[in-house]
Amino acid sequence: MGKGDKKTRKGKIIMGSFGKKRPKNGPRVTPKKQKEEA
């Protein structure tokens, strides 16, 4: 398990592939609406 293993994050980085462990677009974080203080 490691650089040659396609199922691990490290292996996917080495091979340049994406999937469940290493999605192309990172987790979607929506910015919280800030309250306007007058």
TrEMBL record:
Protein name as it appears in the record: Ribosomal small subunit protein bTHX
Lineage, top ranks: Bacteria, Pseudomonadati, Bacteroidota, Sphingobacteriia, Sphingobacteriales
Family named by the database record: Belongs to the bacterial ribosomal protein bTHX family.
Sequence ranges of Basic residues compositional bias: 1-12
Signal peptide (from-to): none
InterPro entries (alphabetical): Ribosomal_bTHX/bTHXc/bTHXm
Keywords carried by this UniProt record: Ribonucleoprotein, Ribosomal protein
Cellular component terms per the entry's GO annotation: ribonucleoprotein complex; ribosome
Organism expressing this protein natively: Sphingobacterium paludis
UniProt-annotated stretches for the region Disordered: 1-38
